[in-house]
Sequence to fold (375 residues):
Amino acid sequence: MEDAKDRVICNLKSARVRKKLSQSELAERVGIKRQAIYDMESGRYMPNTLIALRLARELDCRVEDLFILDVSENGQPVTLAEKSGFTDGRVSVVRIRNRLIAYPMDGKWLHGDGFQAADGMLSKDGATVQLLQAEDSLKKNILLLGCDPAFALLSSHVSRHTGDIRVHCRFASSHAAVKALAAGQAHVAGTHLHNSDASESNISLVEKMMTGTKVMLFAFSMFEEGLMVAPGNPHNIRSASDLAKGDIRLINREPGAALRVLLDDCLARAGVPTEAVIGYDHQIANHSQGAQMVAYRLADAALGLRAVAVAHGLDFVPIQAVRCDLVIPYDLLDLPAVKILLDVLQTHAMRKELSSLPGYDASSTGKLIGEVNSR
Fold:
């Protein structure tokens, strides 16, 4: 029979740290040696029932919060939401309405450089996933799809607010994010379409794509969109119509991206055909890729945000300030992670840091924009 310690995940250390107790302090309270605490946290020793109950009492939690039976060796049914460029089987996993949804651990996650820990390993046929952590922890996490780089800040502030909840932030265009939300492959979607008339474009997009689902829209940020150009703006670009002049090379975004929608609208209003813009069909996947292309002189202009341009040492030609909204299905509003996310939007710390980003405005952050109940 397999040893019990090999089938149990120990959360004692995280619970102890949350209580700000050292190993020695906890050991003294429970009536055991410090070495025993160390051995439990390192997986070398499992306590008896009496010690487990004492630990739970001192740490103000349940025994099952400290010691969890690990059933991750058994593959569980999963839906792989994206397959492009997927090779090594490492996936990030969330639970959405009783389904496991997986996304590949690729370059679309809004975090720093370097490898990130996966939640599971996908089977070769893509039908099941072997979890690398306790399934109970998945219920505490949510997935946010969108392309505002500041979503990474929101994720960090949520983690600071509570240590055991995570917001996974994955890059997706506004259309792709809302489409995935409608398919039940995300908890929250970010969209930042510009308003070309008196109507709210973000609400219009949700009404079109979220048929049959009641959702709420909350403001996250306001930011400047435009063209990222080389330092000094050597081509003297002043507007989107200037892209058709001379030999200016553009790097575009994919169809459905809010920035591309904005560019198309500006070109149409200026009477400039897309064929007149060099590089219009040359697409990249995100803001940072475009900024790097300009920084390395592989392009003269790229669609992006002022904050991204400044971060890469580039100049910026503003086109329009837009609002980024968070779209949340009504039936997911009671999830603990969603409640905390909405609470964090109201905090001074979140708004202050958001406002400090070049071109950002947090004056509407957390405001209820509207409710959509399309039939």
Remarks:
- Residues 265 and 308 are 22 Å apart (CA to CA).
- The radius of gyration is 24 Å.
- The longest strand covers residues 214-229.
